[in-house]
From TrEMBL:
GO biological process terms held by the UniProt record: thiamine biosynthetic process
Superkingdom of the source species: Bacteria
Classification via Gene3D superfamilies: Aldolase class I
Protein name: Thiamine phosphate synthase
InterPro entries (UniProt xref): Aldolase_TIM, ThiamineP_synth_sf, ThiamineP_synth_TenI
Signal peptide: none
Family matches, as CDD domains: TMP_TenI
Origin species: Ancylobacter polymorphus
Annotated Thiamine phosphate synthase/TenI domain residues: 33-190
Length: 216
């Protein structure tokens, strides 16, 4: 992925956004269920990446990482760059610029490093300048709280117009997915939209991951 900070003045049409699935923290049985849900969903929609949360220990994540590899999605460890090599994951997703810089130093040149928990536009720009492969806006915290969607959409539109590194926008509803696609998100992050009904949810998402010009 390109890491220059500003978007070129002239560029080819962007591809349709892809899905970035946020897997909830779960016990071993829950992770096994998530792995099966991913396999079902991937038959209906294009899943680019999955966020793995190591709440139940490293070994419990293996079925989910195996599912990522089976469907061709990047498996990214949430906040634990040190576990990437242990798990054989594709990279890490971290909050805060100091953690990002440490992850970049540890995982380059082969690993993916993404940045979330970005409280301001300045934080997002600093993350890109520090080597983030992507920035994520609007994702919920550990308690499920998230910024107002209007703020997420505004941040996504701002980023898409000015900067080259990909941006991920979090959506909780199908209507929010449509708004982020129109707003220029490169990836749309979802959780319950996949895990509550993998096949039907993925089909509904695939129908909305279409650029406005293509939909007409």
């Amino acid at each position: 992925m390109a890491r220059s900070s500003t978007r070129p003045a002239s560029e080819p049409p962007r591809p349709a956004p892809r899905l970035y699935v946020l897997a909830p923290a779960a016990d071993a049985a829950g992770i096994a269920a998530q792995a099966e849900a991913l396999r079902q969903a991937a038959a209906e929609a294009d899943i680019a990446a999955v966020l793995l949360r190591p709440a139940s220990g490293v070994a419990a994540l293996k079925p989910l990482l195996d599912a990522c590899q089976a469907i061709g999605a990047a498996g990214l460890v949430d906040g634990e760059a040190a576990l990437v090599a242990t798990l054989g994951a594709d990279g890490a997703h971290v909050d805060a610029v100091p953690a990002l810089k440490a992850a970049v130093a540890a995982l380059r040149p082969d690993g993916i490093v993404g940045a979330g928990g970005l409280r301001s536009k300045h934080d997002a720009m600093t993350a890109a300048e520090s080597g983030a492969d992507y920035v994520m806006f609007g994702e919920p915290d550990a308690e499920g709280r998230r910024p107002p969607f209007e703020a997420t959409l505004e941040r996504t539109e701002w980023w898409a117009q000015l900067f080259e590194p990909p941006c991920v926008g979090y959506a909780r509803t199908l209507e929010e997915v449509e708004a982020l696609v129109a707003g220029g998100a490169d990836f749309v992050a979802v959780d319950t939209l996949i895990f509550e009904a993998p096949v039907a949810g993925a089909r509904a998402l695939a129908a909305r991951l279409v650029l406005p010009a293509e939909a007409s």
